[in-house]
Amino acid sequence: LKRLLGHSIFVLFLLHLASELVTEKLRTRSPSGPWLPPQALEEGIEELALH
């Protein structure tokens, strides 16, 4: 169980990094375009982790 928990935390960390990279690309590609602030992404990831 501890191994599974560690794995899920690692996956969440990767998702967090990937989402940050995506938002950076979206931000640089279209400054006026819609993009999620990192805080909103973190809250969404936390919600996913809780469920």
Q: On the 0-100 scale, what is the average pLDDT?
A: 76
- Low-confidence segments, ≥5 residues, pLDDT <50? none
Strand content: under 5%
**Major sheet, described briefly?**
none
Order of helices and strands: HH
Specify Rg, calculated over alpha carbons: 13 Å
Total DSSP E strands = 0
**What structural class do the secondary elements suggest?**
mainly alpha
Helix content estimate: over 70%
Shape, please?
Answer: elongated
Terminal CA distance reads 17 Å
- Total tally of structural domains: 1
Count of discrete alpha- or pi-helical segments spanning 4 or more residues: 2
Keywords: Signal
Signal peptide: 1-20
Summary keywords:
51 residues; signal
Short description:
With 51 residues, the protein is an all-alpha fold. It is 80% helix and 0% strand.
Give a written overview of the molecule:
- This protein has 2 helices and no strands.
- With 51 residues, it is an all-alpha fold.
- The chain has helices at 2-29, 38-50.
- It has one domain (2-50).
- It starts with a helix and ends with a helix.
- It is elongated and about 40 Å long.
